[in-house]
Design brief:
- With about 800 residues, this protein is of the alpha/beta class.
- The protein has 3 domains: about 5-375, Rossmann fold; about 390-600, Thiamin diphosphate (ThDP)-binding fold, Pyr/PP domains (Rossmann fold); about 620-795, Rossmann fold.
- The protein has 28 helices and 22 strands.
- β13, α17 (about 505-520) and β14 (about 530-535) form a beta-alpha-beta unit.
- The longest helix is centred in the first third of the chain and has 29 residues, at about 250-280.
- It is elongated, with a radius of gyration of 30 Å.
- About 55% of the residues are buried.
Length: about 800
């Protein structure tokens, strides 16, 4: 019998709430809602033990009310089931700026006071708790890193559900509750996220219980899913492979009974699915349950203000009563609203939640805001890493053999995965094989919970228990990866350079999370780094052309805090291995590695590569001829293609202009170019000047947009003599050398630039310069006639 049949046959007797349970749950819910409202409005008189006065209201009213009551309602019911079944659960708040719901529960559970002792469980602590919300020097209105129990920033909508699935992968006893806002549900990333159920294995993974909270409105407009016919909505989710349950209404007593029955049924169904799969080995994709929760926006809040409907309208989205500080009538309405929760019944004389309500919350690590999965560094175990040196490419002389750097790295990643089969995954948008990482499949194939057909076995590498995660949605993959890492695991994300921009804003959000956690929240234990491998680079788009040529993600990365960002451009396979192993072992960074998938020359032995990558920047003596003297010119490079062309330029110059003294500098760690006062990896001014001189021309061949190098080095002594070649937004269906030529990063343009910048060559090398110009014309004409670069160019080697 399949898991689908098990679901069809499942008959669950769910008892109704007793009147005592109903009374206590409703009281706890009222306490949550009271705290939510208090956070929005109060800076004094937190328990309303005297009449509310205008001066006790915050001067600026900031925050959001609309989704809070529905979220707190959900939370109360989760607490009941955690206690009843001893469940291991975390909670992800998807609705924008819905932090008051999480914060109020965190405070009532006691976790907030444990993390922040000054926000104590009494009147004085409550006042500080209220005042800090959306207040200068305090906390934001969404679930920022400062919020215990949160793994989801919410600064941008659309990623709650994928973060939830990332948390559930390889956590077999964890249930991740994700409340999805109906405004959030309109975003592209969230719409695609519903397909994550096709990648959840009921044997080895946990479960995700989505709760689509339809309260009808966004900031100022109705929401789509709240307005389509009910049968369409149900068909939509059935078509997406879910089993939807609807809880709808506005009468609290009735809704508590409905929600209790529905949520318990969902939990028991999840358990039945998992038990069946784990006892029989049946991995037929089940229809996982989900809940559609329809409640009024701003439920239990003011019904009407200034003649306008508020509860159940868009006006409840943010601050329901806007002017209580200046409008006595509305001040009275605010007081009546807050007193409707009867705080005198909920909190004792000291200001703490009364004992019978404190008993409603789970204990210890079973508390939703105290679960260690929401502080994943507490659970993180270091990867078991094989020695990357064992995968080295043998290099007898520089620049003689070609290998694919990513194919070489794949062999290392294969064995990393073999040694870490419960806490390491590789993510990529249908490009694992394309990026030459298919060697990983020897350790584990791709996850696929959908139908498998005969031809899938022919090179498809699909399996129910695969650990390579592929889906043609970069946002889904990055979200899974973030959720996986935030709950204590490890991974690597591989994508084409042109399309890594799709996750720009996700990168931004995660970088902000890391920066805040690392700088200010030492109670958050360090999590594994996000490792992004960029391949299929701008310079190798022979058949894709101009649309696939964009190396600008590096510019985005350099905008973020130097405490959390790292960029590496290994020039060859051995450097790629050294960088890859370093990044996988690191914590609290976003590591970006740029490494092309096509075969490239290898220059350094493994020992040389380790030394070079450890320094991050260095002179390659074998490519230089300044012999300890002051050079005439420094030729520098960062990036595999950029390095090969720069070395070819050096070779041309040494052949045709042997009198010129050249120093060759290669950059692996891009942030070495910054001053050490601005980035932890930066070079001191003395070290920078030692490499690049104080007054000699520097011809820098760069992988990406040239102005990025100027941004990083603008304060350096010799910046005026720094001349950067990089991608200039020119391209088509070009051969590799032709694309380099049209962007002036090729060997010929570089050599010409040296001749133009070195005074003693300007007159003596005129004939060489003319020959180089002729080589450019000849190379382009040959490419246009033959569709390939000349053999002498495409098979160039460093002179032995």
């Amino acid at each position: 019998m399949s898991s689908l049949a098990i679901q069809d046959d499942l008959e669950v007797e769910v008892p109704a709430l007793t009147q005592e349970e109903l009374r206590k749950m409703d009281a706890y819910w009222r306490a949550c809602n009271y705290l939510c409202a208090g956070m929005l409005y109060l800076k004094e008189n937190p328990l309303l033990r005297e009449p509310l006065k205008a001066e006790q209201i915050k001067n600026r009213l900031l925050g959001h009310w609309g989704s809070d009551p529905g979220q707190t309602f959900t939370w109360v019911h989760l607490n009941r089931l955690i206690k009843k079944y001893d469940l291991n659960m975390i909670y992800i708040s998807g609705p924008g700026h819905g932090a008051p719901a999480t914060l109020s529960n965190c405070y009532l559970e006691g976790v907030y006071s444990e993390v922040y002792p000054d926000k104590s469980q009494d009147e004085a602590g409550m006042l500080k708790f209220f005042k800090q919300f959306s207040f200068p020097g305090g906390i934001g209105s969404h679930c920022t890193p400062e919020t215990p129990g949160s793994i989801h920033e919410g600064g941008e909508l659309g990623y709650s559900l994928v973060h939830g699935f990332g948390a559930a992968f390889d956590n077999p006893d964890l249930i991740v509750n994700v409340v999805v806002g109906d405004g959030e549900a309109e975003t592209g990333p969230l719409a695609t996220s519903w397909h994550s159920n096709k990648f959840l294995n009921p044997i080895r993974d946990g479960a995700v219980l989505p709760i689509l909270h339809l309260n009808g409105y966004k900031i100022a407009n109705p929401t789509i899913l709240a307005r389509i016919p009910a049968n369409e909505l149900e068909m939509l989710f059935k078509g997406l492979g879910w089993k939807p349950y609807v809880v709808e209404g506005d009468d609290p007593a009735v809704m508590h009974q409905k929600m209790a029955e529905t949520m318990e049924r969902c939990v028991l169904e999840i358990r039945a699915i998992q038990e069946h799969a784990r006892t029989t080995g049946d991995t037929t994709r089940p229809y996982w349950p989900m809940i559609i929760l329809r409640t009024p926006k701003g439920w239990t809040g003011p019904k009407e203000v200034d003649g306008h409907k508020v509860e159940g309208s868009w006006r409840a989205h943010q601050i329901p009563i806007l002017d209580p500080k200046t409008n006595p009538e509305n001040l009275a309405k605010l007081e009546a609203w807050m007193r409707s929760y009867k705080p005198e019944e909920l909190f004792d004389e000291s200001g703490a939640l009364i004992e019978e309500l404190r008993e409603m919350a789970p204990k210890g690590q079973r508390r939703l805001t105290g679960n260690p999965h929401a502080n994943g560094g507490l659970l993180r175990k270091p990867l078991v890493l094989p020695d990357f040196r064992d995968y080295a490419v043998e290099v007898k002389k520089p620049g003689q053999i070609e290998v694919s750097p990513t194919a070489t790295l794949a062999l290392f990643l294969r064995d990393v995965m073999k040694a870490n089969m419960t806490n390491f995954r590789v993510f990529g948008p249908d490009e694992t094989a394309s990026n030459k990482l298919d060697g990983i499949y020897a350790a584990s194939p791709k996850t696929w919970m959908e139908e498998l057909i005969a031809q899938d076995a022919d090179g498809g590498f699909l399996a129910r228990d695969g650990r390579v995660m592929e889906m043609l949605s970069e946002t889904t993959l990055e979200g899974w990866f973030e959720g996986y890492v935030l709950t204590g695991r490890h991974g690597l994300f591989s994508t084409y350079e042109a399309f890594v921009h799709i996750i720009d804003s996700m990168f931004n959000q995660h970088a902000k999370w890391l920066e805040k956690s690392k700088a200010e929240l030492r109670w958050r234990a360090p999590i594994s780094s996000i490792n992004i491998l960029i391949s299929s680079v701008v310079w190798r788009q022979d058949h894709n052309g101009f649309t696939h040529e964009d190396p600008g993600f590096l510019d985005v990365v350099t905008n973020k805090s130097p405490e959390v960002t790292r960029i590496y451009l290994p020039p060859d396979a051995n450097c790629g291995l050294s960088v890859g192993a370093h990044c996988l072992a690191s914590t609290e960074y976003i590591n970006v590695i740029v490494s092309d998938k096509q075969p490239h020359l290898s220059y350094l032995t493994m020992d040389e590569a380790v030394e070079h990558c450890t320094k991050g920047i260095g002179i390659w003596d074998w490519a230089s001829n300044d012999d300890g003297e002051e050079p005439d010119v420094v030729i520098a490079s960062a990036g595999d293609v950029a390095t090969a062309e720069a070395l070819a330029a050096v070779s041309l110059l040494r052949e045709h202009c042997p009198e010129v003294k050249i120093r060759f500098v290669n950059v692996v760690d891009l942030f070495k170019l910054m001053p050490d006062t601005k980035h932890p990896h930066g070079l001191s001014d003395r070290d920078f000047d030692s490499l690049f001189t104080c007054d000699k021309p520097v011809i820098f061949n760069f992988h990406a947009y040239p102005w990025l190098i100027h941004k990083l080095t603008y304060r350096r002594t010799n910046h005026a003599n720094l001349h950067v070649h990089g991608y200039k937004e020119r391209g088509n269906i070009n051969t590799p050398l032709e694309l380099a030529i049209v962007n002036s990063v090729d060997r010929f343009h570089l050599a010409i630039d040296v001749i133009d910048r070195v005074k003693k060559l300007q007159a003596t090398a005129a004939h060489t310069k003319e020959w180089l110009k002729g080589q450019i014309v000849e190379a382009v004409n040959y490419a246009h006639e033959n569709g390939i670069d000349k053999k002498e160019f495409r098979e160039w080697k460093w002179p032995a």
